[in-house]
Write a structure and sequence with these properties.
With 249 residues, the protein is α/β, with parallel strands linked by helices. It is built from nine helices and seven strands; from the N terminus they run βαβαβαβαβααβαααβ.
């Protein structure tokens, strides 16, 4: 069986956690990246090991280039050549209108969501590309339906950062298609995670769910299924694609 070694950024909770558990069950060796919540990340690692899988956790702020480079070097040493990257870590800030945004806030959101995704993708490509002696691989970027919808009166800065993730997906997919690397994105809608509390409204999904065509929010496990498929050889002819999973919105 192919030896899949997969890094999931922001794997300590939410969509990243669900993805780590599912990929481990499918036989991937997992590296869970997190920023600060060590206990949560270690809990995911322990669960994977309990179920017979293999995982490590590495703390690194993906907005910090040096920390990202050090994380990839640690993966090289501890796990071997990376075959998969899930660019999942992302942040949003308190709900606000554009009139209330300042440059510092916009830069903070972009540092994690955009720069972090770019730098992680760069380090992954260096290891996967055939021209560098790699074996190819797959990258899945976790974008958002917000990139299409704009998130007015909530977080247009966040939505715009996901627009940049979409463009990264398209551009990188074309750059590395001949290098054995596929790059795709999922665009989830309203998913039950703790992220909405960071935006100031823990109950956000339940507040708006009746406005969605499917009349319900999504579960992290549903997003994980799509990510796992895009990473897998079953999606071997799929690159530069976007999988919208927003309950019909
Ligand atoms: P979440 O529950 O808030 O989890 C975020 C994860 O990212 C945590 O593990 C966190 O680690 C990590 N993280 C945040 N900033 C980081 C940084 N600078 N460096 C490294 N790790 C960092 O989020 P989620 O809802 O699962 O979202 C995951 C992805 O899906 C995000 O990209 C988000 O934009 C996207 N998404 C979510 C929804 C939704 O409705 N939930 C919808 C569309 C798209 P710590 O806990 O250690 O800080």
């Amino acid at each position: 069986m192919k030896n899949n070694i997969t890094l999931i950024t922001g794997g300590s909770r939410g969509i990243g956690r669900a993805t780590a558990l599912l990929l481990a069950q499918k036989g991937h060796t997992i590296c869970i990246n997190y920023r600060s919540q060590q206990a949560r990340a270690e809990e995911v690692v322990a669960l994977i090991r309990q179920r017979g899988g293999s995982a490590i956790a590495i703390a690194a702020d993906i907005a910090d280039e040096e920390q990202v480079v050090a994380m990839f070097q640690q993966i090289d040493r501890q796990l071997g050549p990376l075959t998969g990257l899930v660019n999942n870590a992302g942040i949003l800030q308190q709900q606000a209108s554009i009139e209330q945004l300042d440059a510092r806030r916009i830069a903070t959101v972009f540092a994690t969501n955009v720069s972090g995704s770019f730098i992680c993708a760069r380090e992954a490509v260096k290891r996967m590309a055939l021209r560098h002696g790699g074996q190819g691989g797959a990258i899945v970027n976790v974008s958002s339906a917000a990139s299409r919808l704009g998130a007015p009166h909530e977080y247009v800065d966040y939505a715009a950062s996901k627009g940049a993730v979409d463009t990264l997906t398209t551009g990188l997919a074309l750059e590395v298609a001949a290098q054995g690397i596929r790059v795709n994105a999922v665009r989830p809608g309203l998913i039950y995670t703790e992220m909405h509390a960071d935006g100031g409204e823990p109950g956000r999904v339940d507040r708006v769910k009746d406005n969605l065509p499917m009349k319900r929010g999504g579960q992290p496990e549903e997003v994980a299924q799509a990510i796992a498929w895009l990473l897998s050889d079953e999606a071997s002819y799929v690159t530069g694609s976007f999988l919208d999973m927003a309950g019909g919105r």
